[in-house]
């Protein structure tokens, strides 16, 4: 690691000195509503260092990160293997962003990614974000099929740029941004008949779906995605698998598609791809589809982006793939995921407020259900009337405040989603499960401080805002 760059630069010194101004700066120059939400939840701490699954607060606390930056920190924070590769690249002054050239690094990363996917997927377009990868797949499939429409799933999430937003299955993200892209239809997740009704109209360019829906961690039935792929083939629609959240070991396989032996026309990835350092995404498709977009020399540049294959992102991507292989992280994700859900299943049988746990690998959710005891039931109804998505804060807030564990509500429902780094240890999984058990014990007393905290928050937020993640 290059200590000179990472520890003694005057900009870093200034940021350390000004860390007490973090939230006033964010309030003045960034997103004041988000600042207010973080303050209401008690999440407005500042972190001075992050390592593996741990965030070190300037308040002296060490927090266990079970949210993993929504998949950003799949390899844990500041993984030394990626850090080493980036430090070496900086030292070597490798060229990045020359645009009218290629560096071997981008071809190498493309080659390694394709080697992990079904054979027909052999052509890569690099982006700087997940939404950009989704947008690229929409454009490429429109050209490849010469068809206008797109089908996606209710409850799905694909990012907030115009294209991805138009296929988003959660109205809240779309409201007030209309008009969206025409010809985008959402069908219920898991409903093959409704999907076929749309596809048989013969004008659908692509069906875009997450293998596991990120917003609610909705795992499909065993036949759903295979059948959807078959329907796409039958009606000439391209099958786009959005693995932006599920890629690279997250679900206990390299890709979630490996669970069902899928052969989509596109696979999209991002989030974990650069090991949590440099913005990076990828759209991977078949050569004949890619060639339809850039098929003549004068069209070679019709779909490129400035930061798409910048060298720092490419080397971070390569180092990420190698770290996952070298440290057996796919296997770890599978085993720790099983351990986590076994622990959660015990809690579901013990605590009436918990209804379900589900997931694959280290993409896991637990869901709350209406309690049976009268006083808690009344509270449950009042909280849901006040704001959907607020109830899980009953657990999220004390987990953070009292146990120093970071979790997050998953959209406007009763689900807490866990996306911890896939480097997590067995001890850390146990630490989480016992802390959650304690918090849930406290919840069983409807007059406890936890309920009071939540009601105080409701008083402040009603009519003003609500809480959700993506
Ligand atoms: N697709 C899925 C499945 C996602 O989970 C996300 C982000 O949460 C996106 C697309 C959008 O990615 P980004 O936020 O990098 O634009």
Task: Describe what this molecule looks like in 3D.
It is a single chain. This protein is α/β, with parallel strands linked by helices and 470 residues long. It has 18 helices and 15 strands. The strands form 3 sheets. It has a 7-stranded mixed β-sheet with strand order 4-10-9-8-7-5-6, with helices on both faces. It has a 4-stranded mixed β-sheet with strand order 1-2-3-13. Strands 11-12-15-14 form a 4-stranded antiparallel β-sheet, with helices on one face. α11 (224-235) links the parallel β7 and β8. The two termini are 33 Å apart. The model is unreliable at 466-470 (pLDDT under 50). The structure holds pyridoxal-5'-phosphate.
Topology:
Blueprint: H1 3-7, H2 10-17, H3 22-29, H4 32-41, E1 47-51, E2 54-57, E3 62-65, H5 80-91, H6 104-115, E4 123-127, H7 130-145, E5 149-153, H8 162-166, H9 171-174, E6 184-187, H10 192-199, E7 204-209, H11 224-235, E8 238-242, E9 266-269, E10 281-285, H12 287-293, H13 311-326, H14 329-350, E11 354-360, E12 363-368, H15 374-386, H16 393-403, E13 405-406, E14 408-409, E15 415-418, H17 426-443, H18 449-461
Parallel strand pairs: 3-13, 5-6, 5-7, 7-8, 8-9
Antiparallel strand pairs: 1-2, 2-3, 4-10, 9-10, 11-12, 12-15, 14-15
Task: From the structure above, extract its key features.
single chain, 470 residues, alpha/beta, 4-stranded mixed sheet, 15 strands, 14% strand, disordered C terminus, binds pyridoxal-5'-phosphate
Task: Characterize this entry briefly.
With 470 residues, the chain is α/β, with parallel strands linked by helices. It has helices spanning 3-7, 10-17, 22-29, 32-41, 80-91, 104-115, 130-145, 162-166, 171-174, 192-199, 224-235, 287-293, 311-326, 329-350, 374-386, 393-403, 426-443, 449-461, and strands spanning 47-51, 54-57, 62-65, 123-127, 149-153, 184-187, 204-209, 238-242, 266-269, 281-285, 354-360, 363-368, 405-406, 408-409, 415-418. The relative contact order is 0.14.
């Amino acid at each position: 690691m290059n200590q000179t760059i990472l520890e003694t630069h005057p900009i870093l010194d200034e940021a350390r000195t000004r860390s007490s101004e973090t939230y006033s700066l964010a309030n003045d120059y960034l997103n004041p509503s988000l600042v207010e939400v973080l303050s209401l939840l008690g999440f407005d701490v500042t972190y001075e260092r992050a390592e593996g699954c741990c965030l070190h607060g300037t308040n002296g606390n060490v927090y266990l990160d079970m949210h993993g930056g929504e998949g950003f920190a799949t390899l844990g924070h500041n993984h030394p293997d990626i850090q080493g590769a980036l430090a070496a690249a900086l030292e070597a002054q490798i060229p990045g962003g020359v645009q009218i050239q290629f560096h071997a690094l981008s071809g190498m990363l493309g080659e390694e990614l394709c080697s992990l996917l079904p054979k027909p997927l052999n052509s890569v377009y690099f982006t700087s974000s997940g939404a950009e990868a989704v947008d690229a797949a929409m454009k490429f499939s429109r050209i490849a099929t010469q068809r206008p429409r797109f089908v996606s799933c209710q409850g799905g999430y694909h990012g907030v740029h115009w294209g991805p937003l138009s296929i988003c299955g959660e109205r809240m993200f779309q409201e007030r941004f209309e008009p969206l892209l025409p010809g985008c239809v959402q069908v219920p997740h898991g409903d093959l008949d409704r999907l076929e009704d749309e596809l048989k109209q013969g004008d659908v360019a692509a069906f875009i779906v997450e293998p596991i829906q990120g917003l609610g961690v909705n795992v499909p039935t065993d036949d759903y995605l295979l059948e959807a792929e078959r329907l796409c083939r039958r009606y000439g629609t391209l099958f786009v698998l959005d693995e932006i959240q599920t890629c690279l070991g997250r679900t206990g396989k390299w890709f979630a598609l490996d669970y069902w032996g899928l052969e989509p026309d596109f696979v999209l990835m991002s989030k974990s791809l650069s090991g949590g350092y440099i913005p990076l995404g990828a759209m991977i498709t078949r050569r004949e589809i890619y060639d339809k977009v850039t098929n003549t020399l004068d069209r070679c540049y019709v779909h490129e982006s400035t930061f798409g294959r910048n060298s720092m992102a490419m080397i971070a991507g390569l180092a990420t793939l190698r770290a996952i292989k070298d440290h057996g992280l796919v296997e770890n994700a599978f085993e720790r995921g099983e351990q986590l859900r076994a622990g959660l299943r015990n809690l579901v049988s013990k605590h009436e407020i918990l209804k379900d746990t589900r997931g694959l690998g280290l993409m896991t959710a637990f869901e709350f259900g209406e309690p049976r005891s009268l006083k808690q039931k009344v509270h449950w109804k009042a909280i849901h009337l006040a704001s959907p998505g607020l109830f899980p804060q009953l657990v999220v807030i004390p987990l953070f405040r009292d146990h120093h564990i970071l979790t997050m509500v998953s959209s406007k429902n009763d689900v807490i989603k866990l996306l911890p780094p896939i480097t997590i240890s067995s001890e850390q999984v146990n630490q989480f499960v016992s802390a959650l058990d304690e918090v849930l014990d406290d919840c069983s007393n409807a007059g406890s401080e936890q309920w009071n905290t939540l009601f105080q928050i409701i008083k402040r937020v009603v009519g003003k805002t609500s809480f959700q993640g993506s």
